[in-house]
Automatic annotation (TrEMBL):
Pfam family, one: GFO_IDH_MocA_C
UniProt-listed InterPro entries: Gfo/Idh/MocA-like_OxRdtase_C, Gfo/Idh/MocA-like_OxRdtase_N, Gfo/Idh/MocA_Oxidoreductase, NAD(P)-bd_dom_sf
Organism whose genome encodes this protein: Aerophobetes bacterium
Domain Gfo/Idh/MocA-like oxidoreductase C-terminal: 136-346
Protein name: Gfo/Idh/MocA family oxidoreductase
An annotated Gene Ontology molecular function: nucleotide binding
Gene3D superfamilies in the cross-refs: Dihydrodipicolinate Reductase, domain 2 (3.30.360.10), NAD(P)-binding Rossmann-like Domain (3.40.50.720)
Domain Gfo/Idh/MocA-like oxidoreductase N-terminal, chain residue ranges per copy: 3-123
Amino acid sequence: MRVNWGVIGACGIADRRTIPEGIIPAKNAELVSLMDVDEERLRKVAKKYGKVRYYTKEEDLIKDSEVEAVYIATPTYLHHKHVLMAAEAKKHILCEKPMAMNLHQAEEMIRACRENKVKLTLDYMMRYHTYNREIKRMIDKGELGRLVMGRAQLTCWYPPIKGAWRQNPELGGGGSLIDMGTHCIDLLEMLMGKVVEVFCYKDHLVQDYPVEDTSVVLLKFESGALGIVDNHFNIPDASSENRLEIYGSKGSILARGTIGQDSSGWMVKRVEREEKGYEAAQKREEVKEEQVILSPVNMYQQEIEDFSGCILDDKEPSFKGEDGLRNLKIILAAYESAKEGRTVKV
């Protein structure tokens, strides 16, 4: 059995990644219709994927009786509107991140999906990355001991582009923090537990647009562990490591390239085999660095197959609307912290 998918906002990230890497190869999904306001580009995208219907109005796609699930890949300010429309039409929903422009919108989206008995999830596809899942497994088995610190970095070069909605705070809600930091915070919460307090710095250092091109967030987790999230729109892509680092009382994991849109990556672990005294613990050469080599599995495909399976089997998705709301609360707390120069509890 397959779930029939429609896509609202088909000419951006949907066409670059989620459709070709997720919906098309997914074993339990079928692409049946597309929607975008740019008809010229939309026609080319539709032709690329074969016999799929296309529309220039979202209400026409949502009225398509064959569509069972909708992937909403529109700018952030439209998420609230499109989720409500899809929920009222009884369509299951995969919505791009961040969830909404504010908490009230996010709560309404959750309520509409609950009342209409449709499933809602958010596009945090990095949760499905092979290496990130292996890190989660190692942590859950206690291989790193007590977690003490984590760092997640996602950075790129994003110069001023005329009409780019991500560079307009009224359309995207912010800059590098809300666009990329949302993924980093989600990964650290997946690995290290709930965030309870944040402190944030943000600024405009290079790019000439009204949203931040630089942000660093300090996180305090429920366990007492600490975290760092750094996101920039002003560092060349080739110079960015996009690091994920996890440190615990028994060792560490250092990963590169597992945060981002690619399903590949590189990872090493340094893990103590047994408890050691002070002198032994200082001898770094006795702790062998091991490269972890795993076969990459496309995270977009894994995400689409997982959510389609939840629809077919009538199960709750692993990442629910409430989780998206929580992520948004942390992001907005970080912006409040940067504005007021103080720590903010979540």
